[in-house]
TrEMBL record:
One of its GO terms (molecular function) is ATP binding. Its EC number is 1.17.4.1. It comes from the Bacteria. One of its GO terms (cellular component) is ribonucleoside-diphosphate reductase complex. Belongs to the ribonucleoside diphosphate reductase large chain family. Provides the precursors necessary for DNA synthesis. Catalyzes the biosynthesis of deoxyribonucleotides from the corresponding ribonucleotides. Residues 24-115 form the ATP-cone domain. Residues 811-839, 853-870 have a biased composition (Low complexity). It catalyses: a 2'-deoxyribonucleoside 5'-diphosphate + [thioredoxin]-disulfide + H2O = a ribonucleoside 5'-diphosphate + [thioredoxin]-dithiol. GO terms for biological process: deoxyribonucleotide biosynthetic process. Keywords: Allosteric enzyme, ATP-binding, Deoxyribonucleotide synthesis, Nucleotide-binding, Oxidoreductase. Residues 800-870 are annotated as: Disordered. This is Ribonucleoside-diphosphate reductase.
Amino acid sequence: MTLTAPSPTSAPGADDAVVPVRRVHVTKRDGTQEPYDADRINRAIERAAVGLPDQISKVTQIASELAITLFDGITTEQLDEAAVAVAVQNVKDDPDFDTIAARLLRKVIYKRVLGGYETDLELALLHQARFPGYVRDAVEDGLLDPRLVTHFDLDALAAALDHHHDERLRYIGTVTMRNRYMINDRHGRPLEVPQYFWMRVAMGLSLNEERPTEQAVEFYRRIARLEYLPAGSTLVNAGTSYPQLSNCFVMQMDDDIEHIATSVRNVMWLTKGTGGIGLSVTKLRSEGSPIRSNNTTSTGPIPFMHTIDSTLRAVSRGGKKFGALCFYMENWHLDFPQFLDLRQNSGDPYRRTRTANTAVWISDEFMKRVAADDDWYLFDPADTPDLVELVGSAFSARYAEYVADAQAGRIRRFRRMKAREQWTAMLISLQTTSHPWLTWKDSINARALNDNTGTIHLSNLCTEICLPQDRDTIAVCNLASINLAAHLVDGELDWDRMRASVRLAVRQLDNLVDITLSSVDESERANRANRAVGLGVMGFTDVTERLGYAYESEEAYELIDRVVEFISYHAIDASADLARERGPYANFAGSGWSKGLVPIDTLDRLEADRGVPVQVDRTVRLDWDVLREKVAGGMRNATLMAIAPTASIGLVAGTTPGLDPQFSQIFSRATSSGKFLEVNRNLVHDLQRLGIWEDVRDDLLAAQGDLSAVPGVPEHLRAVYRTSFDLSPYAFVEVAARAQKWIDQAISRNIYLASRDVGEMAALYQAAWERGVKTTYYLHMKPRHTAEQSTVRVNKAEVRPGAGVGGAGGAASAPTTTPRRGFGFASAAPTTATPVATVRPSGVDGGPAPALVPTTSGAPAAPSAPSVGATAPARGGFGFGRVASPSAVAQEAAPSTTQPDDAPSSAVVPDVVLEVTDVTDVVDGVACPVDPMERLQCESCQ
């Protein structure tokens, strides 16, 4: 390893001096070693940077930073991962580095699945040549459905594969696909490249078609172009040997021990199949309620909820993460105060839920009593059993009768309180624990077009599903989402393409109902009888930014109104056409559809029953009269639309989730697939067009991604790129209300609020109810948020004597096998002499919230970062994405006391400092993801 050479300064004949020369060898997969070939690596980086501006400087930056991470004996896989990680850590400077990282990572995937290649043509031929064998082998191994071999022309499907669609995938999307959706063999070896994955999903959703090969190709082309995507459970299981494809399950627990036990069993099976669950416990009698069969009293619903919460943790979702469930309770239940405490950190752990979420099912009667400052009575469901089934004015009338019975002493177990007292308790709990989510039962039931099959008692895990259920029925919904950003072409929405995407998505969802399997009979029956689907949207904020609209503007409100009307119209039309082709759903007769009603018609019904105006714009742009006549003739699906959060598939699509605004323009995202640096490409491109990106980049990073705190930015861009806490929270309500009038189900609507004033919260949620919003989801409060910041630069001029070639404070050493989380490299990987991380925090976990600064709009702005003199250990670095403990960071930062035999005694190494903004949410001293979509993927929550 050590070579001797004459010193360049020595004259001939002088004493020879020796200069140690460091050589690095790469360990190949077969265990043999070869000298590190820098030219070969540089060519690979060059290919990954093809077509990007300033290609040479980007390649040089990655190659030079990669060189300082190398150590002798590095494996080819470690080398690939290091190259990707170096590209990722530069994303803060230019999103083009994300493109390079994604290409490098996909090359790793290609090599592992398809083998080596040199040219693009070779890659295309490998995709096609190996596809039929991949399907046949996976079927033989029991991984894929045997019908994928018998029902399809595999050669024709292989010919349709186009690996150039991979260019649409960003780095985080590629990692998410690989870690969450693409299948491995029994030994954990990857079997799919992205286009195999898309085709497998398309095949799995075409099994019931008369011409399955043709239909699979059509589905494939749409989803491979990311124009719409099926939801997570569908992507995981489509085409596999166990096609559990449905996404949402909504069930109610009855008040008897047999049904409680059955419900626990059903939760276990549905959780195993990766479905998200909503579970109503309103029917369960309250604590202390007499049980006549054995002359004892009930323990109430809380212990049973704790049992189910433990069940979620015991049965992991397909090995991916804990089960996901939300409990629902109506707020007249006598045990509702205990329900409010379920998510508190303190208290009896046996009366808390650590995994399951909670939501409250609120009546119009309660909202009116809050407005009137009237009394509110809590009852035992054993005394008031019919309240669960009643809605609207019928509920109000019967509730008043029970109140009179309580006042007359005919009901003995009740509690009286001010409605505003309970309303305040809900809001305080929502503020401190993000639970319970607020949902409105009468808005949902009065506007339901599938109202002929019973009362809707709850929503689902993410609050967007509105389906009836009873003792023998577990309602099921099947989801997909239109990617609005993929339909924006040259500054205009391509309405023809969107129409085609909507119609194809509805057909694919209807196919899913016939193909999916369920381990629970109650859900299987409901799925086939109602064929409920929920087509949603994602990328709304992505589109508004690219069009130059502020989220809080009439242009944005008009956009969401027009877009959702268009999607709703054509989804309903497609379902009516499918009914003519395949027949209407079993429960069509007697439904609102059968009476010629469409979603917007139900606003009048809600308003009449409520007796309070629904305050929402009612502009109509399309000819709904023609569609009313058509739907009366038959509908294939009981429901058509629901806007889900799109937490994971939004990452794959590379767009903003659901209807959510940007949380920050630069922030770190921690998901179950790793830790990622997110930079808003739209903002960077706008700033680059103005020629000021280089000037404001560091200021934006220092401002934690808040553009309003960056000087020198034009005012119109500040408006377009206002982040979630800088927007008026009423903008979120208005966007939801405009969309909701066209949607037969509901919207998973996150709310962001900069103030902790309970009065402001009350007014905001009151406004949501008045505008006809059916449900809300997480509430995110600004004062919880603090941030850690660190700097990230590679100073190639600075040298530090006594450091080894491998990295900080020591010579290159053999790799350790510390498990690592981040950037998708979750398996054991080398630390390779980790560089020193210099951390300059702008806040500390659990510390006081920074003061809010009023803005000109009246809404509090993001706080300025307080100055903190002390340093703190890094949570994790973006160089290799490893999340280390403070002690581990300190240990790595210390000089190494060991060196390999051939290490030079006075080598020099550039000083590497990691730089990234790491934003965290601190709740009761516990750090949680800030980005709302991350909460759905956080291992500690779900």
